[in-house]
Amino acid sequence: MAGAREDRSKGPRASENAPTARSAEELTRRNVDRVSALEAAEHRKATRGDRIADAITNFSGSMTFVWLNVLSIAAWIAVNLALPKPRRFDPFPFSLLTLLLSVEAIFLAIFILISQNRATRISEKRSHLDLQLNLLSEQENTKMLLMLEQIGNAVGAEIGHIPDVKVFEQPTQPEALSEQIDQAAELDE
Length: 189
Known about the structure:
The chain is mostly helical.
């Protein structure tokens, strides 16, 4: 009980401030709203340049963009083939068209990279948040196992025959897990 008082002295948890959910649907809706709020906060942090890069990337990844390119290229070629030879502004093999498409590809690649870099930063932050929440959950579960063992001992329950209980009561060492993953990856290579 002293441990519970210590945890409460650090401040109320979000679950203590939130009204009790009446259904799983209400609870999941609340969680979805919280995640949406986190995403909205990340979106508000985006610079004007980030928003422009995202808008260009989104548009260039659409079928509208594909069809605009197809129609523009087809019109360019058709006009240059239909005009009399002296009036053609980009005769076959359409060097000017090739140059314009190359410049378009360069700028699209830059905007896509900017957008991907931002998406990577957000993804890394989410991964870090997931790791922190998982570690917190692991710590809470370890504490609950210890408390359950103490309750079991207090009421005289036989729990000594469950070998995994002692193992799960030990705190997980993220550094050791990371090292195990690295060793397994090295063996796979």
